[in-house]
Design a protein that fits this description.
alpha+beta; 6 helices
């Protein structure tokens, strides 16, 4: 992966790697009507998932790289605008890692190696030139519309998307020139001289009935590197329409890595509290 702009979205979840009563909805699409960009965006924002908390008692996690697949289990707790906690366990139920994200801190415990990591979000800028924010990670995990600026921790300005129709869905896309950070410039200059900017393509696929994101692509056009997030198997969980499966693909011209999360038990608007403890026997590390 050549550029740090796309590492942030999948990075935290990757660090952790080493029964709903509702009936699944079947959506049959007809020819989708024409719509303006402003009306589509208004519908998207109106139909964002509405809940205060999310609790997945069990989720299946699979990680794919180089043809090898690793399967784990986990739990997820989200208190909106407060914290995100992910716990990942080996098939026999032994916890191997736990991460706690708050609005201003990142905490990770590697139970298997008895190590832990504490930082704030500045860590991602210092290491990857990626101004990753809590809000962006929350949006990615909760099937909420997000744009490039929100993933870089800056306030998003009103922008003009190109609107198309494809695969029985609406497609919003934009191509923008972004300045490179100091670390990423070094990577580019190994191949090109005086590379100062990168062309970023963002492509959002929107369902024409629910107006929820079906996929979000961020791609460095020059380097053919990026991240794609897709949402599948939507269900009605006691009144909250939500995908059972979230899949990430992190790709470059030389490598491809996949991460898939499937929620088997999912509850909304229940009491959730973080339970994050660090054993005094664990060793603190400065890098992940």
């Amino acid at each position: 992966m050549k550029t740090g702009y796309f590492l942030g979205g999948i990075f935290i979840i990757s660090c952790c790697l080493f029964s709903c009563k509702s009936v699944k909805k079947t959506i049959v699409h007809k020819e989708i009507p024409n719509i303006t960009e402003n009306r589509l965006l208004k519908n998207v924002y109106t139909n964002e998932p509405n809940f205060n908390s999310l609790y997945s008692k069990r989720m299946d996690v699979s990680f794919t790289q180089g043809g090898k697949v690793s399967s784990l289990r986990g739990t997820l707790k989200i208190q909106r605008d407060s914290f995100i906690q992910i716990s990942v366990s080996a098939p026999l139920g032994i916890e191997v890692g736990r991460v706690l994200l708050t609005r201003d801190s990142v905490k990770f415990v590697d139970s298997y190696h008895k190590k832990y990591f504490l930082s704030d979000y500045k860590y991602f800028y210092d290491k990857f030139d990626a101004n990753l924010s809590y809000d962006c990670l929350q949006k990615i995990l909760t099937n909420t519309f997000f744009d490039f600026e929100s993933c870089n921790g800056t306030e998003s300005k009103e922008k003009k998307y190109k609107l198309d129709k494809a695969d029985n869905s609406y497609i919003l896309s934009t191509l923008e020139e972004k300045a490179l950070g100091r670390k990423i410039k070094k990577l580019y200059r190994k191949k090109r001289k005086n590379k100062e900017f990168v062309l970023i393509l963002q492509r959002i696929q929107v369902d024409p009935l629910s107006f929820r994101p079906l996929s979000v692509l961020l791609e460095d056009v020059d380097e053919e590197a990026g991240i794609n997030v897709s949402y599948n198997d939507f269900r009605d969980f006691d009144g909250v329409f939500f995908p059972e499966k979230v899949a990430f693909i992190l790709f470059s011209d030389k490598d491809k890595m996949g991460l898939e999360i499937r929620f088997n038990r999912l509850e909304f608007n229940v009491d959730v509290e973080p339970n994050f403890k660090i054993s005094p026997k664990y060793k603190r590390i400065d890098q992940l």
